[in-house]
Amino acid sequence: MQRKNAYNILCVAATPFFVDRGGHIHIYEQARALQKLGNKVTMVTYHIGRDVPDLDIRRIVNIPWYQKTDAGPSYQKPYLAGLLLVKALQVAREVKPDVVHAHGWDSAWVAWWLWKLLGIPYIFDMQGSFSGEIAEHGYSAKSGPYFNLLSRVERLTLQQSPVVLTSSTQICQQSRDRFNLTPEHAWAILDGVDTDEFSPNTYPHDPALHQKLGLPNDKKIIVFMGLLKAYQGVDDMIEAARVLVYERGFTDAHFLVMGFPDEDIYAAKAAEKGLKDYFTFTGKVEYRETGHYMALADLAIAPKIAITEGDAKIYFYMAMGLPVVAYERPASVEILADLGFYAKFHDPVDLARALHEALENPDLKARGAANRQKAVDEYSWTAVARRIMEAYGIAEDRMSGRRRANRSTETVIGTQHS
Fold it and tell me: Read out DSSP for 159-226?
């Protein structure tokens, strides 16, 4: 089948889009890059979230009691998926898309029904394991009957999806190994970053913001950007800061923490460890404003402990020319390669060691500059969008094959009964 030069795309996002966090930035920047290549994008999403420029967003009916904007599972998601399907059917009949791009597990189930009811091919953009995510967020043990049920749902969803895209090779390989998927079925496209928007030239150091935040002038600033949740490694970061200050005796650093929703809780935890004067918690910062804050930093930290997920914040750190300390986690190592400062996974003591060594490294700025160059050379959103368009074409071919197979089966059955 001849591939299209441009697609009419229906994005299904089972999430309160747009909120200033990594997964939503992934969706937004993908959509922008696809539109720059001549594609049309319409998005169906939850009733809550912020509208963003240049994107046609259609929302489900308002559910006033559901206001959850942070990531992770919820017992209310099943009926939200039903409402999302109703809205997606309505919008699909209106815009007549060529393909559905499903972001997340609930969206993949909606996309499957759109295929069954309307015959629209789809791809599944998977950011992590279904069973793994539920277990890591504390909704299930990592073994037992319930976990096995979740794994069966995960297997069926992946096997039914014509193309599965992931943002890291490690997540992709795990899915292939665990569920016997072929390399043609599941493949990694990685994430990207707008290196023109997020650049030291676009966001130079702002002395007024530095002063407004009350940051010290005589210390190196370590920045963290992301959701303030345990799976992001925030507890580990605070403990590493304690070790850095009180066990390693390094007092010339200050942590600038951008994120939500539990900034007051984590500020209290830092204070309990005697670190009140070593942390500044900003609360939520809008996506387009984050560059101003990152420009204040000398070093960035990425201590995520969710082993089955990517870590989009690293791309932004790199684009802003920051050196990065990260846990030695496959997804993080894949992005940073030999340019990262690494600590043993989920080990705050070793994280403190890595921070200390990075802060005293005479080549720290050069490492940041190398990160910037790598982001420019390898992590363009345009390249990501082209790979996604290739996936759309493959999904169309495979779904056409399924249609032909279904028609052949129906013809045989009809002949047998005539």
Answer: HHSS-EEESSHHHHHHHHHHHT--TTTEEE------TTTSSTTTS---HHHHHHTT--SSSEEEEEES
Angle between helices 169-179 and 145-160 (to 10 degrees): 100
| 300-340 confidence digits (pLDDT tens) | 999 999 887 788 899 999 999 999 999 999 889 999 999 99
**How many other C-beta atoms are found inside a 10 Å radius of the C-beta of residue 410?**
10
d(CA 140, CA 400): 38
β-strand 299-302 against 279-283: which pairing, if any? unpaired
Write the burial class of residue 414 (CB in 10 Å: 0-12 exposed, 13-18 middle, 19+ buried): exposed
- Tokens 């016997």: give the residue: 180
Domains, the chain, in order of start with CATH, read 8-192+381-416 (3.40.50.2000), 207-378 (3.40.50.2000)
Q: What is the DSSP letter of 296?
A: T
Which of 23, 31, 68, 22 lies closest to 53, judged by CA? 31
Question: For 225-282, how does the pLDDT look when each residue is reduced to its tens digit (9 = 90+)?
Answer: 999 999 999 999 999 999 999 999 999 999 999 999 999 999 999 999 999 999 999 9
| Alpha-carbon distances, residue 46 vs 91, 226, 287, 385, 387 (angstroms) | 14, 21, 19, 24, 27
CB 265 within 8 A of CB 319: no
